[in-house]
Amino acid sequence: MPKRILQGTVVSAKNDKTVVVRVERRFTHPLLKKVVRRSKKFHAHDESNALREGDKVRIQECAPVSKKKKWMVLSGDQPAS
Fold first, then answer.
1. What would be an example GO MF term here (predicted)?
2. How many distinct structural domains can be found in the chain?
3. What percent of the chain has pLDDT over 70?
4. Which of 29, 41, 49, 78 suits 11 as a labelling partner, its CA being 20 to 30 A distant?
């Protein structure tokens, strides 16, 4: 079974070797026919501690690293600022 890959934004990088990533999904409401946004936060393993808040990242499922971390960072793009 392939591992899921999600794309999101880093919302917290305060913990050591851990980032919190918000992944947003958009769908059309079945009754209202309106586009609805839902988001979910994932704790992901960042071995190099290189990511900061606002970075766009891709995360992939992995074996559990700790109680909450079951995702690892694949790649991160620092914003141009």
1. rRNA binding
2. 1
3. 93
4. 29
